[in-house]
Structures are given as C-alpha cells and as structure tokens.
Amino acid sequence: MSLPGIAALSVPPFADDAFSRVLCVVAHPDDVEYGTSSAVGAWTARGIDVAYLLLTRGEAGMDASPPDRTRELRTQEQLRAAEAVGVTKVTFLDHPDGVLEYGLALRRDVARAIRQYRPDAVVVGSWEVEFTAGLNQADHRVAGLTALDAIRDAGNRWVFAEQLEEGLEPHAVRWLLVGGDARPTHGVDVTGAPLERGIASLEAHGQYLAGIPGHPPPRPMITGITALQGRAMGAAHAVLFRAFDFHSPPPIALEAMAAAASARPASA
User: Fold this and answer.
1) Domain range summary for the chain, segments of one domain joined by +
2) CA angle, 170 as apex, 186 and 78 as ends, to 5°?
C-alpha cells in the first residue's frame, strides 16, 4: 500500500480531549479492520466509547458460499473482530451487500443511528473513486458519502423530522474522520498493544479472508500499512485520518479573514 505524498508530511495527533464517543460507519464486515481498528484499539484503551455501524452483513462477499450462510458467518466474524479492540456495540442495518444505493432511505437510516448513539466523531472510509489503496469499491464509496451527508441530516431538526416522534432529537457531530485519504491531517499512534489488537481484529475474519486468492496474512499486512503511515507522525506505527472539524470555520473563511487582516491599512 503506497501513500504518495504522505511520507514528507508531519501529521499531528488528535488532542487528548478531542472526542469521547466515536461511531465507525462502513459498508461491510472487515472494512474497519484494514488499519482503522488499530486506532479503535488505542481509543478504547483510553476509555473512549466506540461503536460500529455496518450497512450490510457482507452476504455477497464469498463466491463459494451462499448468501444466507455467508451472512451469518461474516456477522459472527465481525462481532469477534469488534471484541478484539474493545467494541461491544455493533449494529447491522441489513441493506443488500454489493448493490448499496446512495439515497434518502440509506441517509435516513444512518442519520437515525447518529441521533441514537450521539457521537462526537464519525469515522468513514474514503468516498473517492481512487484512494490510497487503489480503486475504491462501489459500496465503500456509497457508505462514505452517505455518512458524510447523514451527519448534516442528523443535526437538522427539519430533515427526517419524523424521527422526532421516535424521541430522537437532532445531534450535531463535531468531527468527521476519513480513513484512506491521501491528505491526512491527524493521526493515531498505534505502536504496541493497539497494533496487536488491530491485527487480531483482522485475523477474526479468517474464513472470509481464506476465500480471497492471494490475500496477505493479516500480521505483515497491518504491520506494513501502519509502519508506512507511522512515518508521517514520527511513530513506529500509526493510523492516519483526514479530519473535518464542523465547529471550526471552513479553511477558505480562515484564509479570507487572514487576507483581509493583512490588507488592512495600519492605523495612523
């Protein structure tokens, strides 16, 4: 996994008090486990509450196994993977695997989950067609973009207003953390125990991984990915994110204010 342009950067860690509740939104069982789960392991070890929201159960992911059997197998593997990094709250939305459709129905379901769990930060994968690992998969792109829009939906009282009748008040998420982005802004040092827990979480998907020809063993794969990302933090192993802080003015506003200040004539 190459990370063009990242090695020369100096990526800071998150502030210790940046967030206390995190919701990871992904399309399939195993999506969190390709590095992000090591960061999750670091967070839960510090007492941060992390939950997983999976849009499907990955039933279309094993060619040699019928969907009904695959659905159950991958559900159980995901629960074990979550447990390995200290996550006990795992929710599956049961949308169809392989054919996720971006739209109001999916946004509504993710917004509901955000209003229920009320996280400070939402973690997603990249919605770009091309990202750090190559060409992105269709469900991954839908999941990332849906979560981005559902964050705004969840904070707007007049979007999916019927959820008010369910007792779900609007909730404003502060942080969106995007994994797999070539322009990281923050990182999590996962050296040591968090890395080991992250490796164990991917190993929990053993039957699924066994059906992928040529898939690298979890240990060298996750060790290598986190070592590459660690260079940007000056750490042995790290997980990088592009972080968007919805409580801060957009960068262009900050630049405009700075430009205006520098253009202001000095007072006599």
Assistant:
1) 21-263
2) 55
Q: Give the Å distances, CA to CA, from 77 to 99, 123, 171, 174, 200.
A: 22, 20, 31, 31, 11
Rounded distance between C-alpha atoms, residue 153 and residue 148, angstroms: 9
195 CB-near residues (< 8 Å, 6+ apart): 38, 41, 222, 223, 226, 237
DSSP 8-state symbol, 259? H
Residues 92 and 238: beta-carbon distance below 8 Å: no
At 131 the pLDDT is 92
d(CA 204, CA 33): 9
User: Per residue in 170-220, pLDDT tens?
Assistant: 999 999 999 999 999 999 999 999 999 999 999 999 999 999 999 999 999
* pTM value > 0.85: yes
> Which residues touch 138 (CB under 8 Å, ≥6 apart)?
98, 100
- In degrees, rounded to 5, the angle at the alpha carbon of residue 119 between the alpha carbons of residues 118 and 121 is 150
Convert the pLDDT of each residue in 55-79 to its tens digit. 999 999 999 999 999 999 999 999 9
Please check whether residue 88 is in contact with residue 82, taking contact to mean a CB–CB distance below 8 angstroms: yes
Superfamily of domain 21-263: LmbE-like (3.40.50.10320)
